Amino acid sequence: MNNENAGSKIVSKGIAGSVSFVMIIMIFSRLLALVSTQVYMSYFGLDSFLNIYSFAVSVPNIVFNCFGTALATVVIPIYAGHLAKGENEKAARFANNIITVASTFTALLVLVGIGISPFLPKLTAFRTGEEYSFAVKALMIMMPVMLFYGLNYIFQGILQSHGKYGFPAFVSVPSSLVVIAYVFLLGDKYGISGLLVATFIGLSLQALILIPPAVASGFRYKFTFSLKDEDMKTAGKMALPVLIGVSAYQLNMFYNTTMIANFEGMVTLLTYVQNIVVYMVLAFVYSVTAVVYPKLSESASKNDTQGYKYTLSSVLGSVMMLLVPVTFGFITVRKPLLELIANWGKITPDDIEKAGMLMLMYSIGIVGIGSKEILDRAFYAIKNTKIPAINGFVIMGVNIALSLVLINFIGAYGIPLAYSVSSLTGLCVLLFMLKRKIGAYGKGLGADFIKCLISGIIMALAVTGVNVLLESAIVSTGIVSRLVKLILPVLTGIIVYALCVLVLKVSALDGVIKTVKDKFIKNKNV
Fold first, then answer.
1. How far apart are CA 497 and CA 455, in angstroms?
2. What's the pLDDT at 173?
3. Rounded distance, CA 214 to CA 160, Å?
4. Using one digit for the tens of pLDDT, what is the confidence trace for 172-213?
5. Which end of the chain is more exposed for a tag (fewer CB within 10 A), N or C?
């Protein structure tokens, strides 16, 4: 099998269609989550109690994501493996067992979370008076949501094993709609306390809406609890290194959230900017990994090294080609973007300025944040979870050490900058370690990245020029003026970057052009 034949799977119509479908839903979900955040920010304003709300919502999410990611890693290969062999009864038994065991563990985690709720605000600026009382209450309200997080991860794994990607990608939509509806209908009556309850209801729906499609796929829950089951032993062995590695990442996020809570009004802004930059990038990357991860695993299981390397190289090349302009795009249009989407209600120009600086700092690490997820899956596919786990602690160490230094010079902005630098460091470690593990791969990937970087810099200069011209030509602050100030620079950036990568002959562009040509020819023949 030559490289081109082995790699043709990655651009097959089925895979491309699945990635596109999942990507559209995930990006829509993230946009709606951004809208919901914008709605309650504009309505309530960035006072201390809204920042306490943001802190209380973030903590259980950060805590549970360690366990949840480990669940997501083990459910699919074990459950899907039984389905592929026609062992439906074994698949059902494993699903029932993992639900019972995970729910039991999560219930204990909830109790621990409620128990430590009075101590967590002591680590933040909300350590006294009415703010402290509200912070403790908010944390206690939100901790039980971890039960639904666990079910959400398991049901997503079950549905993806059956080839159903739509509902798992859609899960955050109802929760965003519940929050938006609450603000407009009941926000004035119940305030931020009611927002906590509405958020809890919305997050619980993320698991509950997956039950009907799971049942439609043939799933039926039956109480089973056995830690000695062979599948559970396998799951434990697979999950432990992932759990350790992701724990480092989540501790990282918890540290960042706790540190920035010491700066007035910054927790909610940090969450908002994360929704724009980090989670939008991850929505794109996860839509790729949801489809490509099984393909990497398939090549690895068949000892198809060339196919594995080609698939990985193709994905990395395509992802980097897209993430580089996203990086420069966020950096150069952050002001018109935030003025368009965030400058409403009680949001002040000072809030926009702070959010813009946070966005700048996060944008620096976009390539590292996104590409690391691809490389993590590449290691998981060859059943090596140890290296990503160790790398998680490397990233955490760099992040904590650097943030402690940077906050002395640039205050709260040192926290996202440290996160970006640590993400890029983690990417470099994984690239190096994977080469040691499987040998040379990604021929021409470095050269392509340099070409993309040059294209991105030229794009940034062009966009900056357009920004300066528009700023002097348009003095109005109306909605039409804001749209023009955003759309024209974005269109300029897209055109300039596309021309640059075409002139510089970035090889990853060949696959995109081939896919478009195949699609055009197919439509023409029809």
1. 6
2. 87
3. 10
4. 888 899 999 999 999 889 999 999 999 999 999 988 999 998
5. C
Tell me: the pLDDT tens digits for 49-75? 888 888 888 888 877 776 777 777 777
State the amino acid at position 85 in one-letter form.
Answer: K
Token pair recorded at residue 320? 């980097």
Q: Which amino acid is at 105?
A: F
Distance CA(223)–CA(97), nearest Å, equals: 7
This prediction's pTM: 0.72
CA 21-27-33 angle, to 5 degrees, is 140
Q: Tell which phi-psi region holds residue 442, choosing left (phi > 0), alpha (psi between -120 and 50) or beta.
A: left
Amino acid at 145: V
Whether 347 and 41 have beta carbons less than 8 Å apart is answered as yes
User: How many CB atoms neighbour CB 153 within 10 A?
Assistant: 26
Q: Work out the angle between the directed axes of helices 305-341 and 349-363 (0-180°, nearest 10).
A: 170
SS3 state of residue 433: helix
What is the three-state SS of 16-40? HHHHHHHHHHHHHHHHHHHHHHHHH
pLDDT in tens, 363-385: 999 999 999 989 988 888 887 87
> Tokens 């294209």 map to which residue?
455
Find tokens 């366990």 and name the residue.
67
d(CA 351, CA 357): 10
Cα–Cα distance, 456 to 327 (Å, whole number): 8
Among 182, 176, 175, smallest CA distance to 203 is for 175
Extract the tokens encoding 1. 């099998």
Q: Let me know: does 211 contact 192? Beta carbons within 8 Å.
A: no
pLDDT interval class at 427 (50, 70, 90): very high
Closest C-alpha to 15, from 422, 298, 270: 298
- Tell me what pLDDT residue 140 has: 94
Positive or negative, the CA dihedral 43, 49, 54, 57 is negative
Domain residue ranges of the chain, discontinuous segments joined by +: 49-264
pLDDT at 405: 95
- Report CA-CA distances (Å) from 69 to 73, 81, 226, 313, 429: 6, 19, 21, 24, 21
Instruction: Return all residues near 164 (Cβ < 8 A) that are at least 6 apart.
Output: 213, 217
| 131-188 residue pLDDT tens | 899 999 999 999 999 999 888 888 888 887 777 777 777 888 888 999 999 999 998 8
Which pLDDT belongs to residue 341?
79
What would the two tokens of residue 37 be? 């955040």
Nearest to 361 by CA among 333, 396, 330: 330
Q: Are the C-beta atoms of residues 72 and 376 closer than 8 Å to each other? A: no
Give the pair of three-digit tokens for residue 498.
């596309």
